[in-house]
Amino acid sequence: MVERLQDFSRLAIHTMTFKRLDLRTIVSLFQKHGVPGITVWREHIHDIGLGEAKQILRDSSLKVVSLCRGGFFPSASAIEREKACVETMKAMDEAKEIGAPLLVLVCGAEPGLPLAEARQQILDGIQKVLPHAKSLQLCLGIEPLHPMYADDRSAINTLEQANNIVTAIHSEWVGIVLDVYHLWWEPWLQSEIMRAERKIMAFHVSDWKTPTTHLLNDRGMMGEGCIPIRQIRAWAEQAGFRGFIEVEIFSERYWNSPPDEFIQRIKDAYLRYV
Amino acid sequence: MVERLQDFSRLAIHTMTFKRLDLRTIVSLFQKHGVPGITVWREHIHDIGLGEAKQILRDSSLKVVSLCRGGFFPSASAIEREKACVETMKAMDEAKEIGAPLLVLVCGAEPGLPLAEARQQILDGIQKVLPHAKSLQLCLGIEPLHPMYADDRSAINTLEQANNIVTAIHSEWVGIVLDVYHLWWEPWLQSEIMRAERKIMAFHVSDWKTPTTHLLNDRGMMGEGCIPIRQIRAWAEQAGFRGFIEVEIFSERYWNSPPDEFIQRIKDAYLRYV
């Protein structure tokens, strides 16, 4: 049996979980409620500018867990592929500026571009930006996305695929972002988590609701759905993961709820279901 | 390069593609438009009764390709699991009655029931109904469903999993239903299709639209989306598949369109994109 979490020392929340708020308000909210970790989305930086974002985070007691997100490598156009690499390197610079040790990569896909080509372009793209990551001493985390996003968000749809890329690239700076929402259904999830071992660089939680009414913005609170979150956390910890547990919920319903109530629900669900 | 289809001799359409029409109307429509094959959903039989359905199909020139659907094996309750087997055997009897050589199995899943258990229960369920299939000389086709249906429709979500089950069961009466909508994203789809070989008992087509606005009823017409349908057909044929190509489109949009126009669009898309 897996033990419950006893306190909030490993709790982090994504700024996108509070999509409608600005970074300053989010940081205050997290501090008020004793949430120690934050994963910052670039949208929340760009709204106010990097300088101000950096200042807000530095003045806070929050630990910046990661920056979301770089990647989106594949394209039928070589110019677009080059742009994606440049943009990802820019995101790396931002990550370094705000003190994030990790940039999350959503690898990308393009409708009509064959998945086999997209997958090769992703490998090529990561290789291309890797020297910049090394020079910054910044980790890159490949986040496999659910297969329902294989059309336009990511051609990397299983942990097995992500593990294969990480194995192929063979760099201490490239690892895995494990999100239970994307991977809970994967047939050999347990063994792929053990295979990933210390390469697991981040762990995201939310839940899969039945029914799910929207492909993007109907994620559930932990405990509202069918994902065996605690079991998957146990596997990740067996594999050696000791980092933050990041709550990443895209939900029109929660985005429209009062932030103080929502964050309290997150904390309750965190202890009960994670 | 893969050749286009030259005629409609291998075209079949699912009755559920015309969900709002009754079986008699659907059969007339298919005959009027020169569609030679039909896959019948049980809903369309039960609306009018098995006797009348059988009569309508026998009086037509249509070839019944398969009956949809049995399965839904997993449950936390042993009584429910038993019921699912009984219902699946009843579906087999109906298949035999209407002259369908194949019953499509949607294997089932139950929110909260661990997927590993659901997967074992599916294997057990198929083993349980297999003697009945043998006695009827009826094929059972395991249809892996897209991972977005792993919560409540099927715990079998990749061709690889389905191939593993078929290998384990090792019976001439159990094979694969390959639906491009469910499997197009699968990382090693080509090699799993070759592995399935002559075990491919049916081939379903539709398309994945970007964006997809509903998890169940927003499938696209062939050519409207990103699925490399012709490529996947070519692989299936390399593997030895020579059967009907079945158009299975669940779409509120098309269900609300005039049937004659819709079927003409299907025929056009069939020659252009399949």
Topology:
Two copies of one chain form a homodimer.
Chain A: E1 11-14, H1 23-32, E2 37-41, H2 42-46, H3 50-59, E3 63-71, H4 78-98, E4 102-106, H5 115-136, E5 139-142, H6 159-169, E6 174-179, H7 180-183, H8 189-196, E7 200-205, H9 229-238, E8 245-247, H10 252-255, H11 259-273
Parallel strand pairs in A: 1-2, 1-8, 2-3, 3-4, 4-5, 5-6, 6-7, 7-8
Description:
Two copies of one chain form a homodimer. Chain A has 274 residues and is α/β, with parallel strands linked by helices. Chain A has a single domain, classed as TIM Barrel (Alpha-Beta Barrel), CATH 3.20.20.150. Chain A has helices at 23-32, 42-46, 50-59, 78-98, 115-136, 159-169, 180-183, 189-196, 229-238, 252-255, 259-273; strands at residues 11-14, 37-41, 63-71, 102-106, 139-142, 174-179, 200-205, 245-247. An eight-stranded parallel barrel of chain A has the order 1-2-3-4-5-6-7-8, surrounded by six helices. The first copy, chain A, is globular, with a radius of gyration of 18 Å. Chain A starts with 10 loop residues before the first strand and ends with a helix. Chain A binds chain B through residues 111-112, 114-115, 119, 146-148, 150-152, 157-158, 160-161, 184-187, 208, 210-213, 215, 225-226, 228, 231, and chain B through 111-112, 114-115, 119, 146-148, 150-152, 157-158, 160-161, 184-187, 208, 210-213, 215, 225-226, 228, 231.
